[in-house]
Amino acid sequence: MAIFLLKNHKILISSIVASTVLAAPPATAEESSYVGIAKLFPGIQKLCEPVPKPYPNFMTNYVYKFPESFPEAKVFDNLYYLGNHAASSWAIKTEEGIILIDTLDNEEEAKFSIEGGLKKLGLDPSTIKFIIITHGHIDHYGGARYLAEKYRARVIMGEKDWEKAAQRAKVGLPAGFTTPSRDISVKSRDQVTLGSTTVKMIITPGHTRGTISMIFPVTDKGVRRNVAFWGGMGLNLGPNIEPYSAYAKSADLMKSEAYSNKAQIFLSNHAKFDYADKKIEINKNTNSGNAFTNTTPEIVGAFGLLAHCAQSQIEFIKQDGVNGGAKVGRGAE
Ligand SMILES: [Zn+2]
Question: pLDDT tens digits for 90-131?
Fold first, then answer.
């Protein structure tokens, strides 16, 4: 068990002891036909479409422009959206400070959307204590160094993705981009606790090898609900089968986690996949319920659909293989 203490703050990271994950339930009516789930989660359904060729290579070809902004928003009593239309950053507010999930591209965006967004929402950026980076792609960790140094926050990433970020830095970063100093590396089922909020982190290889997905609680007008957060969405993983198989296996794992934790909310780090921007708009215009809330079988179905989409990509590659040949190992990322 690893314990990290910060001055004046009761902060604990520990491995979950003897945590039992229940087996995934039998297929529900929604799940057996993904049609209903696809209608509820059209952003996920997009991942079932064949990936356009040529495959993008995230290691070298990141064409950057300042993304179209989207207004910061309070989504639940203790959860805030700070992203833009390209990528998301989420702030979990606790009694002891903020746990931030992802940091957008760079310092400029961190200043504009994260610091600026928190201030507009009445929150204090200097209370950011932990920064969880879902995965080692620069559109998620690029703002981390600036925030971590300014606010003395600890940065958490999966071990494989710390390595990946270091490798990316060697290739050379776009102007204005930085890599956070290596800090906390987590294992699957480690958890971070700040105040009375605990975020359980699950390593879900696929989108990258060290992607962190999460289970954490929010309250919705005082009612506690669990979020199942998928840490790496895109299936633009190159011509090789391995990462797609890993992705499908990880989606099945999170399906079990969503079930055993009775998750009712699906979130990710790109609004184009979880429709966070659209749901925020819906919430602005209605007083009945919260557009981010689903039933647990629907969330379980969403992870089933993710696994199904990854499997579909494998089938597409095999079909391509009639002409080109599927490859073993990992491809572009
Ligand atoms: Zn990514």
Answer: 999 999 999 999 999 999 999 999 999 999 999 999 999 999
Closest CA to 194 of 90, 99, 80: 99
Res. 224 pLDDT band, cuts 50 70 90 = very high
Separation CA 18–CA 278 (nearest Å): 39
Report the separation in Å between the CA atom of 232 and the middle of ligand 1, taken as the mean of its atom positions.
Answer: 6
Question: 6 in a domain, yes or no?
Answer: no
Number of structural domains the chain divides into: 1
pLDDT in tens, 245-275: 999 999 999 999 999 999 999 999 999 999 9
Q: Are 194 and 242 a contacting pair, CB within 8 Å?
A: no
Closest Cα to residue 117, out of 103, 130, 131, 129?
A: 103
Asked if the structure places residue 329 within a domain, the reply is: no
Distance 135 CA to ligand 1 centre (A): 6
Residue 160's domain is classified under what CATH number? 3.60.15.10
Is 327 within the bounds of a domain? no
The answer to whether 213 and 230 are in contact (CB under 8 A) is yes
Element (H or E) spanning 160, and its range? helix 159-171
Would you say residue 330 lies in a domain? no
CA 234 to centroid of ligand 1, rounded, Å: 6
Phi-psi region of 195 (alpha: psi -120 to 50; beta: other; left: phi over 0): left
Between the CA of 7 and the centroid of ligand 1 the distance, in Å, is 33
- Grouping H, G, I as helix, E, B as strand and the rest as coil, residue 69 is strand
Domain that holds residue 201: 11-57+64-321
